[in-house]
Amino acid sequence: MLKCIAIDDEPLALRQIAAYIAKVPYLELVARFNNALEAQQRLAEEKIDLIFVDVNMPDLNGVDFVRGLVERPMIIFTTAYSEYAVEGFKLDAVDYLLKPFSFADFSRAAAKANSLYELRHNQRPAQEPETEALPRDREYLTVKADYKVSLVRIADILYIESEGEYVRLHLANGTAITTLFRLKNMETALPSDSFMRVHRSYIVNLRAIHSYIKGRIYLNDAEYVPIGENYKEAFLNYIRQNFRNL
């Protein structure tokens, strides 16, 4: 059970988050606050596993609030402004929810937090990476996760998502595997002719791209990854060099 607090200066938004939390069996809402200053006191008194926090708040905004935490729980930002997502990723947030968000969006973000929590508490800290991906010409990765070793075909990886010191491999069959490995090491290990870093927190399989539009790369009709501003030019160069416009 993840102990949560919710922080939002909008009463309606705060009630919605509380209602969503109540629907998720592994989440427990300990308290809710309409400003970050009150939440600081509660965090000093009690260990919290996960914080849902709005970005744009008076007095102390969500980003500055998180930056100031000495012991930082897992963070899921909520915001009406997509540009704040970059700040969230810089702080290693588990996810950000763009308002208005559905319960399906909320539950996906909560599931990511729960997976990360289980990894941190059920696996012993490792000195060496739990994924073996060298040399580049290999067809498979051996991935250690959930107390077993999985053989993952590299071509079946749609995209890879950073979760701090862990990465989540999203596969073509709709499943995902989370393992102890840094994204920058994964970028080095994977073949550069078919995988590209397109965001601070994402690597995409170029051969799995379905479409792209307005800073998003779609892997299918519903699933997409963002294109980071610092990676946009390299991605568009790849598109220009490899695809003919009609």
Compile the SSE list and pairings.
Blueprint: E1 2-7, H1 11-23, E2 27-33, H2 36-45, E3 50-54, H3 62-67, E4 74-79, H4 85-90, E5 95-98, H5 103-122, E6 131-132, E7 140-145, E8 148-153, E9 157-163, E10 166-171, E11 176-180, H6 183-189, E12 195-199, E13 202-205, E14 211-213, E15 216-218, E16 224-226, H7 232-242
Q: What does this molecule look like?
A:
It contains 7 helices and 16 strands. It folds into 2 domains: 2-122, Response regulator (Rossmann fold, 3-Layer(aba) Sandwich), CATH 3.40.50.2300; 131-242, Beta Barrel (OB fold (Dihydrolipoamide Acetyltransferase, E2P)). The strands form 4 sheets. A 5-stranded parallel β-sheet has the order 2-1-3-4-5, sandwiched between helices. The protein has a 5-stranded antiparallel β-sheet with strand order 11-10-9-13-12. The chain is α/β, with parallel strands linked by helices and 246 residues long. A hairpin with a 2-residue loop joins β7 (140-145) and β8.
